[in-house]
Amino acid sequence: MADRYLSFTGTAPGRFLTRRLGLPQPAKLRRDALDGGLLHLTAGKTDLDLAPVLERTGLAPDTDGRPAAVVLDATGVRDVDALAEVHAALHPVVRSVATSGRVVVLGAPLDADDHHQAAAQQALEGFTRSLGKEIGGGRTVNLVRLTDAAAAGSTLCFLLSPASAYVSGQVIEVGPADGSAAPPDAPELPLAGRTALVTGAARGIGAAVAETLAGQGARVVVLDVPQAEQEARRLAERLGGTALALDITAADAGERIAAAVPGGLDVLIHNAGVTRDRRLANMPAERWSSVLDVNLASVLRTTDALLGSGAVNRGGRIVATASIAGLAGNAGQTNYGASKAGIAGLVRSLAPRALAEHGVTVNAVAPGFIETRMTAAVPLFIREAGRRMNSLAQGGLPVDVARTTAWLAHPASGAVNGQVVRVCGQSLLGA
Ligand code: NAD
């Protein structure tokens, strides 16, 4: 379903009229390339060596005062006085950031023994989220908490690229170096030689994820329910992968997946999901349990079976799909909201253990309003509200979720673990 309002505001009369009426002004997001150079700023005393990582972004240093990306290293901000340097660094340049540009603030983990440092570093979170809401023009603002620049390389490359077009207002924590941060030999095909399975991949977001991972070199297994087998097969053929017709709620789904990937899995994407909306007072038990079963119980069951049997290779990546409905709540979706919040709990608890015991990271993406068949079916006014009620004033595309998933699945993302990253244009819901 095309976003006609976005097309209209892209015309001169549309821009004029919507401005006069004080209506939202969505900018057409750049998903191909960023337009300009990179400006590297510092607040507080820092000893982070960012140069080699920033070089890998492919962005040249800004020379014309119209940067496509600004990186502010605020890891050394330890008190309120040093916060003034954040203002001093960004105040003069914020207006000049190119349309659809990026602002990435780098912070440090909160120091449990120093409440002044913790206050100043937490302040960066409120700063980032507020700037994201006011900056406009399709620009995004995110905060990365890190200790080691090299370990955060894949994250900075993602956030400073067009792949993160619909990711804004996020706080991402990157752990210490884990030995996997080195860039792969063929940077354009980081998943070459790896096997990725995507559930619910016959259409929508899952199909985009399968396509993106295949485009990065992965052998993909397109899993979907038997009723969608034809679509799954067609996609798998196009991507040079295989299809697996399987209802993910089957008790033996984990064993059947393991049997389908004799060499083991390197990337496991839990994307299959359903909605059965009804207010709680009108919700029969069947609607509750079917949603909980597909969206949460089957994710727990198959993850346990695949990790337990050693079917996920060391260095593997698991990415589950939450939703902003699970983080913010949504009327009529107590079942769906519960299932998606459950995904966040699963990720946070399992991530450290899965990494320690199996060398596998576990993260989640939480999409906001994404233009798919699921959201095309939403009544017009609710759909329009969903599209506009975010800092970018438009819906995301399946490819935005897919590219975020690909960053988490990247071989160099081993230090990103236990994160729930919203792909929602900084939705105002539960912001
Ligand atoms: P979709 O309905 O277009 O696709 C979901 C796919 O999952 C379908 O191909 C379906 O056949 C498959 N599936 C459903 N039950 C299954 C089962 N038991 N076993 C195997 N496959 C099964 O949905 P979408 O919009 O592409 O959403 C994908 C994921 O993203 C879901 O988890 C959804 O909850 C989540 N999400 C979507 C949005 C959005 O705006 N579209 C927002 C937040 C979260």
From TrEMBL:
Q: Known PROSITE patterns for this protein?
A: ADH_SHORT (PS00061)
Which residues does the UniProt record annotate as the domain Ketoreductase? Answer: 194-368
Q: Which UniProt keywords apply?
A: Oxidoreductase
Q: Which Pfam families match?
A: adh_short_C2
**What superkingdom does the record give?**
Bacteria
Q: Which InterPro entries match?
A: KR_dom, NAD(P)-bd_dom_sf, Sc_DH/Rdtase_CS, SDR_fam
Under SUPFAM superfamilies, the record lists: NAD(P)-binding Rossmann-fold domains
Which Enzyme Commission number(s) are on file for it?
1.1.1.100
- Alphabetized GO MF terms: 3-oxoacyl-[acyl-carrier-protein] reductase (NADPH) activity
The family classification in the record reads: Belongs to the short-chain dehydrogenases/reductases (SDR) family.
- Kindly give the PANTHER family that the UniProt entry links to this protein: 3-OXOACYL-[ACYL-CARRIER-PROTEIN] REDUCTASE [NADH], SHORT-CHAIN DEHYDROGENASES/REDUCTASES FAMILY MEMBER
According to UniProt, the name of this protein is 3-oxoacyl-ACP reductase
